[in-house]
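Lab notebook page, bench 4
Experiment: in silico fold of construct C2
Operator: M.H.
Input chain length: 366 residues
Purpose: comparison with the prior construct
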Amino acid sequence: MARPLTATVDLNAILQNYRYAKKLQPTSKAFAVVKSNAYGHGAVKVAQHLDEEVDAFAVAAIEEALALREAEIKSPVMLLEGVFEAQEWALCEQHGFWAAIENEQQLAWLLESQAKVGKVFVKLDTGMHRLGTDELGAASMVEKLKESGLVDEVLLMTHFACADDLSDGATLEQLRFFEQVRRRIGGIEASVANSAAIMKWMIPEGGWIRPGIMLYGISPFAGISGEQLGLVPAMNLTSKVISVRQVKKGDKVGYGYSYEAQEDHDLATVAIGYGDGYPRHTQTGAPLTIDGQEASLVGRVSMDMITVKYRQNNQPLAIGQEVVIWGQGVPVEEVADYASSIGYELVTRMTSRPHYRYITETKPKS
């Protein structure tokens, strides 16, 4: 436990963000999306904290769903990509999992298995062309599912390609097509909204929303942080200075000598690198704080270490100083910009090396 890289996760912040999503869409029920290890925050810990309040959880695959049941999570769990093998339908019946269906093979497996499932979400391709069936296929699937007697409720779902871009009209086109199909099918609830749509688009009332990245206090929109959207960032990723030296003007630093000092300054080495999930291609200038003072990454990211300097403060650096990689005072969205990436990737790409610490000290607003 000596290496000082720690991800502190505020579970009450996640609960507060879930409640905020429901306030934005008060007529809808809400999945808490905990796929990809709850976006790097720890799916079991997050689910245990939210279990008594959420309407249901959503994951990407049955392995993630089974991990929740093994941790004695009681809430319904939805498989967003459906099943990948025929025998998974029996597990859905056994454990009370819900599932999406997006192709005829998944439907055939269900009908052959005769498994009883609480809810099935037929996925309509409204233009993203990643998953989902067409209009005729959706209507046929809904009819077959209803006639089968195997499913308590059939719903229609889709996914938006450009909801994070408020200037792009593609979301409105997808919504228009979705509603046309839903009216033709008739008498069916909808699930369309990811985090971006929940916060910024007019979506059908009722049905189910799917808050994902917003649960963790991270913005789905470019150029704006989660805090600016009224969210509470849930992860504070910190490390410590493990070495200090002085560099002179003209000295070069790190692999490839990619950084050259423009003046004399102190240089700190910090225990984090791409082996922990911090992107190797993050550029010089990426923000951090050292003991609360603004600092910047300099030079190339190594597997286990980075080098940093104060931005303005001329005070000497010292071994043991705390460094905020992202979190308190350092929005993960800003770090992602320097990595030519998005906040989603930074938190989900973290490896098992950081120590995880869970707190519930922040009192959530009801």
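Observations: The chain has two domains: 11-217, 235-359. Residues 235-359 form a domain with the Lyase, Ornithine Decarboxylase; Chain A, domain 1 fold (CATH 2.40.37.10).
Next step: discuss at group meeting.
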